[in-house]
């Protein structure tokens, strides 16, 4: 059964909260800026992506589709994960 939108958003936030050691992320909006608001740097981004791969069944990072714009906000990384899951189901 496909993951529901709210469940996927919650998972993205939970993984981000775990990686940043900041449970306040769980209550943040989708427009929260990863770099500016949460201080996410390139190393934390990699850790976050690997943790997302572990947490979301069927999600794999595709280096050919991952762009800097995907790391703007919580919502943009959610959209990337959702798109990758949709693409994986079609393939």
From TrEMBL:
SUPFAM superfamilies: ACP-like. Pfam families: PP-binding. InterPro entries: ACP-like_sf, PP-bd_ACP. Residues 6-85 form the Carrier domain. PROSITE patterns: CARRIER (PS50075). This is Acyl carrier protein. The lineage of its organism: Bacteria, Bacillati, Actinomycetota, Actinomycetes, Micromonosporales.
């Amino acid at each position: 059964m496909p993951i529901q939108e709210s469940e996927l958003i919650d998972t993205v936030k939970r993984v981000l909260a775990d990686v940043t050691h900041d449970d306040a992320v769980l209550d943040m909006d989708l427009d929260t800026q990863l770099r500016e608001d949460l201080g996410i740097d390139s190393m934390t981004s990699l850790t976050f992506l690997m943790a997302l791969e572990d947490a979301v069944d069927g999600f794999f990072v595709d280096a050919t589709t991952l762009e800097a714009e995907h790391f703007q906000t919580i919502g943009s990384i959610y959209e990337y994960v959702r798109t990758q899951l949709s693409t994986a189901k079609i393939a």
